[in-house]
Every structure is written in C-alpha cells, then in structure tokens.
From TrEMBL:
The lineage of its organism: Bacteria, Bacillati, Actinomycetota, Actinomycetes, Micrococcales. Pfam families: DUF6916. It comes from the Bacteria. The keyword rRNA-binding does not apply. Residues 1-29 form the signal peptide. It comes from Humibacillus xanthopallidus. This is DUF6916 domain-containing protein. Coiled coil: none annotated. InterPro entries: DUF6916, TAT_signal.
Amino acid sequence: MVVISRRRVLQSVPVSVAAVALPSGTALAAKAPTDPLSRSRWTPYVGSTFSAKSSTSTWSVRLAAVDDLPGSPGSDRRYALRLTSAAAGRESTVSLSRAGFAATTLHLVPGSNGTTWTAVVNRL
C-alpha cells in the first residue's frame, strides 16, 4: 500500500507548476512583436523603397536616412526618418509598407522642395 501524505503532495506541486510555466513563458517571450516605432526596426531599411499610402493617393518613397534628434544621439525612441521621392507631395498621414515589413502609420512633413519628407518619432 502506498501512503501519500499532504506534505509530499505540497512539495511536489511547485515543481510541477514551474515545469509547466517555464516552457510556455519562454515560448511567449520568443514571439513578442517588434516595436513598430523603434529606430532599430527602421535602420536596416535605409536605402529601401516603401509604398506610402494616404487617404487620397499612393506613391513610392525611399528611406534616405534615420537621423538623430537634438540631445538624443542614437536613441531608439527619439529620431527622424528622412524620405525622398520623385513625386511631389504634401503634408499628410500615411501608411508606409513594403514586402516583409508590417505597415506603419506616420505623419510626413514635406521639405522645401516637395520631394523630401520627414517623420519625427519622439517617444519620451
């Protein structure tokens, strides 16, 4: 006859729970989404072409640079995206997308010549 005491049961419960919780927690952490507004997400795409879609039109833009904001060199949360295009445009909120890159909504402000835009990300 096997005798199981309350002490044995209580001693075995935390081990079982820990064994079950660790793999699922690790799996969830591995699938955590990338922050769509982090500088590190945009930097590898400098020189790449994106589709910019506003409420009225769609055009191609090239990510020319990811620039520092004053007082925040290299910050992943404070930077400016500089975009260029052959098409002239005006200030608008657009969705930037490309193959393998989730669409991200940004507000673009045109430069003086109308074919460059800046999107500032400033998350304190």
